[in-house]
Specification:
Elements: E1 4-13, E2 20-30, E3 35-39, H1 46-53, E4 61-66, E5 69-70, H2 76-86, E6 87-90, H3 102-110, H4 119-125, H5 141-153, E7 159-163, H6 171-188, E8 191-195, H7 199-202, E9 207-212, E10 215-221
Parallel strand pairs: 3-8, 3-9, 6-7, 7-8
Antiparallel strand pairs: 1-2, 1-4, 4-5, 9-10
Helix pairs in contact: 3-5, 5-6
The structure holds adenosine-5'-diphosphate and magnesium ion.
Length: 233
């Protein structure tokens, strides 16, 4: 069985006449260690799909199996446990806790895990050692996103889900953040899914998925992976 199995997932919003179908029967699978890009225009269902895989939203039909566990069949408490134990989430706008330093922001997430990564090593590999006592408002967007990746990563998650992680960053900073994600995928072996509407980013991944109007219109293997730092867009 694959690490992630998604079978005929469906999701809609609204009642009666206002009902819209947003995910229309999506099936795919990822192997452990895959680095996948999820592409598609705005409104195509990328965030909804990622949130379903991450247990942030329930689906209306179908199954999502992560590492042998059907998360669509879990109770709310069990889904919460799955998110805490197995998952890292990274969002476009960092979602850091403003009153905590870099170090503390990461530390609170370390407590969610029985086997967190060593904090000092992680701060160094994120390039945040010198920034560790700063508050989010004292840092650039790229540094804040590094901290957010640290929060996601310190739990040593099996699956790292990233929703437009470079959407608010300039080109050069985006490349550096993507290079960091590449390193995370390689060094820590976690499976990564990056949502983006930038086709160029997909060239660094070994799997490319594309949503259009709630349907998966491309699901392919990328044989010619390009290192993040040499991407151009
Ligand atoms: P993407 O991330 O690809 O831009 P989304 O998954 O955010 O797309 O949204 C897909 C569609 O679902 C859009 O039409 C959006 O308006 C709708 N949608 C998303 N979340 C909700 C919600 N909570 N309630 C109603 N409609 C929603
Ligand atoms: Mg989105």
């Amino acid at each position: 069985m694959a690490f992630l199995e998604v079978a005929d997932v469906r999701k809609g919003y609204g009642e009666g006449d206002a009902h819209i179908e947003v995910i229309k029967g999506v099936s795919t699978s990822l192997e452990k260690g895959d680095f996948a890009s999820l592409l598609g225009p705005s409104g195509s269902g990328k965030s909804t799909f990622l949130n379903i895989v991450g247990g942030l939203e329930p689906c209306d039909g179908g199954r999502v199996v992560v590492d042998g566990v059907d998360i669509t069949g879990l109770s709310d408490r069990e889904v919460g446990e799955y998110r805490r134990a197995e998952l890292g989430f990274v969002f476009q706008f960092y979602n850091l806790i403003p009153d905590l330093t870099v170090c503390e922001n990461i530390e609170v997430c370390a407590h969610l895990s029985e086997d967190p990564l060593p904090l000092d090593d992680l701060l160094r590999s994120l390039g945040l050692w010198d920034q560790r006592r700063k508050f989010p408002r004292q840092m650039s967007g790229g540094q804040q996103q590094r901290c957010a990746i640290g929060r996601a990563l310190v739990k040593n998650p099996k699956l790292l889900l990233c929703d437009e992680p470079t959407g608010a960053l300039d080109y050069q900073t985006s490349l550096e953040i993507l290079a960091l994600m590449e390193e995370v995928n390689r060094e820590y072996g976690c499976t990564v899914v990056v949502v983006t509407h930038n086709d160029a980013i997909a060239r660094m991944s070994n799997r490319i998925m594309r949503l259009h109007d709630g349907m998966l219109v491309e699901d392919s293997v990328n044989e010619e992976r390009v290192p993040a730092l040499s991407l151009e867009w």
